[in-house]
Specification:
Blueprint (H helix, E strand, L loop, with lengths): L4 E7 L3 H18 L11 E9 L1 H15 L5 E10 L5 E8 L3 H14 L7 E9 H12 L6 E4 L1 E8 L8 E7 L4 H13 L13
Antiparallel strand pairs: 1-2, 1-7, 3-4, 3-6, 4-5, 7-8
Length: 205
């Protein structure tokens, strides 16, 4: 029996985007050597849940699906590369073009997941020491990558917290089935309504 599990909730780009990310990762390895996350598949991380009891957490995904399934599929636009400001390490990533529609879509996702705001991105090189990042970042700084792809589902991965195998495995999908026009009508209706805050409401996580 699995006492504790970790979960990661992600969006996954289509195969052509994933293959190109893989090529960027391998090209980076040739320049700076092996680094953390080199072999991870391209994805956009939405939420991590660490050291969870499966019998408690997994039924909550059913509740979550009721809200998430109402969200519509959405087309994201890759917009070159960027990096997070360095501390002792630097992370280089493929950037997602920010638009009001994109920001609103991710805002609704985060609300369903009870997650704080982050910058959606696809990591290329994670936590690279700054001295190596100085060699790597110029290769990406001015490189163009403008490609659109549609995400129509959310993916949940899992692994044993204290197991020897640290590879993430597929757990379940939640498909986005919402109607964009209907969602806009619902949002406008909600803006006109004033509802009291339920202080006893329980968060999913």
């Amino acid at each position: 029996m699995e006492l504790y599990k970790d979960y990661m909730i992600i969006l996954s780009p289509p195969a052509p985007v994933s293959e190109r990310v893989k090529k960027f990762k391998l090209a980076s390895e040739r320049l700076i050597g092996e680094y953390e996350g080199l072999h991870s598949k391209a994805h956009i991380t939405l939420k991590r849940l660490r050291r969870q009891k499966p019998f408690w957490t997994e039924p909550l995904f059913d509740q979550m699906e009721k809200e998430l399934s109402l969200i519509e599929p959405f087309t994201l636009q890759l917009n070159g590369f960027n990096h997070f400001l360095p501390t002792d390490f630097t992370t280089i990533y493929a950037a997602i073009l920010s638009t009001p529609e994109m920001e609103d879509w991710f805002k609704r996702l985060r609300k369903c997941l009870n997650e704080k705001k982050t910058i959606p991105h696809i990591t290329i090189a994670r936590q690279v020491p700054n001295e190596l990042a100085k060699k790597l970042w110029p290769k990406f700084k001015s490189r163009q990558w403008n490609e659109a792809f549609t995400v129509n589902k959310l993916i949940i991965l899992h692994r044993e917290t204290f197991g020897h195998d640290k590879a993430w495995k597929h757990f379940r999908d939640i498909t986005f089935r919402g109607n964009p026009e209907l969602n806009r009508l619902i949002d406008r209706k909600k803006e006109k309504e004033v509802k009291p805050v339920d202080k006893n409401q329980i968060s999913l996580f």
